[in-house]
Amino acid sequence: MRGTLLKVVMIFGVLVGAVASAAAQGAAPAPPKPDAKPEMTESCPGLIATRSPLFMPASLRLAALERDQLRFTFIGHATFLLESPQMVRIATDYNDYVRPQVLPDIVTMNHAHSTHYTDHPDSGIKYVLRGWAEDQKPARIDVTYKDVRVRNVPTNIRSYDGGTERHGNSIFIFEIGSLCVAHLGHLHHTLTQQQLNEIGRVDVVFVPVDGSYTLDLEGMIEVLKSLKAPLMVPMHYFSAYTLDRFLGRIRQEWDVEVAEVPSVVVSKASLPSKPKVLVLPGR
């Protein structure tokens, strides 16, 4: 009985993967608007496909990722594990408190609090990417490893003495498969047009939604509207109350979907046709 059930699940996973692959091959990118800035269309691969939602819980995908797919898992706080088709693993805002169970190939970190970085990363990590530099100079990161490119856009943060630490945070951009993913880190302010141009078009954005330690809710909504990502994933909330406060406000703007598992496989073709907030349970 157990063997039969496993076979059914495997067949189902293969069928779902075939559907996703066919959808990806048939998706035609929308042409850029006449007034679109070149930076907004060339910074990331391709434009957003207009397809109906086709999210696949990672637990149902037993086969390897297709080359246009990405798997991401919410580990907790501001840490996600991203996995590419060539099985490059990336952990965001890597720290000493919340870590994935597997050793990442690449980790990104930010400087706002110790829950967003570590001074003692595992020596087996190939690339340790700190989103800040010494003497408040901007970090400049552009790393390619196998089928993944990681780059950053520096932003400022509030310092402990009430001032400003220039370039203490980085918005990290991950180009994986046909997708561009932005992790806003510990964002403290809205974005300038120059920063938006550097970020470029994004398909998925991981957004801090605490509304106090990072940017306030209205400011964060302004950022999300500026980025125009079709898929927005909340992070950096400390209680059900904090998350519900964000969702109550965000439902005035976009649809909200609450997932049952912390992992999702997504491709360009499976992105929602209109912006959506996807809530993943933290581990």
TrEMBL record:
Pfam families registered for this protein in UniProt: Lactamase_B_3
Annotated keywords: Signal
Source organism, top-level taxon: Bacteria
InterPro entries (alphabetical): RibonucZ/Hydroxyglut_hydro
Signal peptide per UniProt: 1-22
SUPFAM superfamilies reported in the protein's UniProt record: Metallo-hydrolase/oxidoreductase (SSF56281)
Descriptive protein name: Zn-dependent hydrolase
